[in-house]
Specification:
Layout lengths: L1 H9 L9 H4 L3 H17 L6 H24 L7 E2 H8 L1 H22 L2 H22 L8 H9 L6 H24 L5 H29 L1 H7 L13 H23 L4 H23 L18 E2 L3 H19 L1
Parallel strand pairs: 1-2
């Protein structure tokens, strides 16, 4: 009887091909590298060096894997959960070993090959990421009771974590371009170029934030089951109509300032922003028509006690973010 229970816990569902980028945390890496290269070519007239590109890719992977390992550590397998969290729980030792090795390699590259200015800027941003991570995964060390901790995790934050992620990700992606312009740029063109880069950074923050909001929306039932904090869990007491209305208003509010910002962007960046915004906008409203509990689009429950789900819409929101800049880079 005990052996059967153990076998049930180690069972894993068949991995859909579309899920591999997500479960290996490579989707965020593709987004970061594509946008970094596009910004460098558009604003600095050069591509990112192998050290700049490699350190960004490694750092993004380290952050995302750490976040998912911490989520997987408190995963309740008796409740519905995502395929990626189940995958990280099952392979946590492999991911942890890879995480340590890559951290050491990334540290070597950052210290030895990056400029002192970029290194200092990166340390400041890394501190902000650590503060964010501590606030999300360790919200209240004094909350001993499970109910108290649950209320702390689901308590509405002043700024939802999805928007904080969007801002931090945009700053990380644009950090190389900012450092290059500030310390090595042409002072005669600084004001206009800085304004354009600032507009691009804000536009990316909006895009990345919307990406996180949509993922939270698609996975809201699983987040509630696992007591994971997200912007979608703040609407626990509201019906689907209220959530759909909120998403429509949100899309309109996001679209208007982005149209204004794109007027100040280089053609390559503006085109990428517009394509990503349009893709997210369409996906948001198409998904509204199919708003429901996960069923046919996902991997079904694998045993009587284990509920593992995969929503392909979560893959599409990431594809929408890295495909336009990749295509534009191939044409430049």
């Amino acid at each position: 009887m005990v052996r059967r229970s153990h076998d049930r816990e180690t069972l894993t569902p068949r991995m859909p091909v579309a899920a591999w980028l997500s479960v290996l945390s490579l989707d965020a890496v593709l987004v970061a590298v594509a946008w970094q290269q596009l910004l460098m070519l558009s604003f600095c007239d050069r591509g990112a060096t192998w050290a700049e590109c490699g350190s960004l890719a490694a750092t993004v992977w380290l952050v995302y894997v750490a976040d998912r390992l911490l989520d997987a550590a408190r995963l309740d397998l008796s409740q519905p959960h995502t395929l990626r969290h189940r995958f990280y729980l099952r392979h946590r030792r492999v991911f942890f070993a890879g995480w340590v090795v890559l951290l050491l390699a990334d540290t070597l590259v950052v210290v030895r090959y990056l400029s002192p200015e970029l290194l200092r800027s990166g340390l400041v941003l890394a501190s902000a990421v650590l503060v964010y991570g501590a606030g999300v995964h360790f919200p209240s060390a004094s909350s001993d009771a499970k109910g108290s901790l649950l209320r702390t995790r689901l308590r509405p934050a002043l700024v939802p974590k999805e928007f904080r992620v969007g801002v931090l990700f945009a700053l990380g992606v644009s950090l190389t371009a900012w450092t290059s312009l500030i310390f090595h740029g042409d002072s005669g063109e600084d004001r206009q170029v800085f304004f354009s880069l600032a507009a691009a950074t804000v536009a990316m923050a909006v895009l990345f934030g919307v990406n996180c909001v949509l993922v939270a929306r698609f996975e809201r039932h699983l987040d509630r089951a696992q007591s994971f904090a997200s912007i979608a869990t703040r609407w626990q007491s509201r019906g689907e109509r209220e959530m759909q209305l909120s998403l429509c208003v949100f899309a309109i509010v996001v679209t208007l300032p982005m149209v204004v910002m794109m007027l100040q962007l280089p053609a390559s960046v503006g085109t990428a922003v517009a394509a990503c915004a349009l893709g997210l906008f369409v996906l948001a409203f198409v998904s509204d028509r199919r708003c429901r509990q996960p069923t046919s689009m996902e991997v079904q429950q694998t045993t009587q006690d284990t509920f593992t789900f995969f929503d392909v819409r979560g893959v599409w929101v990431d594809v929408i973010l890295w495909t336009p800049p990749m295509v534009i880079l191939c044409c430049m």
